Amino acid sequence: MGKLDGRVVIVTGAARGQGEQEARLFVAEGAKVVVADVLDDRGEALAKEIGALYVHLDVSQEADWHAAVAAARETYGRVDGLVNNAGILRFNSLTDTPLDEFMQVVRVNQVGCFLGVKTVAAEMADGGTIVNTASYTAVTGMAAVGAYAATKHAILGLTRVAALELASRRIRVNAMCPGAIDTAMSNPARLDPAADAEETSRALDGLYRKLVPLGRIGKPEEVARLALFLTSEDSSYITGQPFVIDGGWLAGVSVI
Asked: Which domains does the chain have, with CATH numbers?
């Protein structure tokens, strides 16, 4: 018996990185998964490999959300869960951030999450689950990622309000707050076929060995296991909460 047997779950940004690992794990645990992304070739290939449904979804577009939910209902009959994983990161000081860049991050990270909750919850079966992907930077500051941090802080607010408003339908809403995870977002070498992504990963491990108490960068599979916990009955009495998964980074700084 899988932990998600028979459940229908939409995972956004599922063509690669954390979303891909969430989709793979959820299928392995018995879920019917909707792989949603703008990377059509990769998303379709993944869906075919794991026996899932692929839908094109630009999370910043409300019409795309309605089409994705309609496709899920047409194929599987209902929707039981959502993992709002899609997101983008831009590096810039606040005073050097152009408004267009700031709003691009807001549209994908914050508006995308809002539209996911709004659209999917309206069609979701009672007793469903929503997992929003926030960030370590949702609960602390970090220089050079002001737009990103602002949207991730906003996601925690959305999560808490949604948890309160949807509790009467037994829909639980929680947030994950990953620290540094070895995906294309933190390791762009994974996007370059000519680059040695594993060498870059080792270099990142060297950096995070100094910053993270557990001494390494996180793995997307580890975030996927947290998403599984929050989507399954293992977390049946938990809602409205942020879950930090950062190797102890947020705990503080060691001076010895």
From this structure: 8-179+223-239 (3.40.50.720), 183-217 (no CATH)
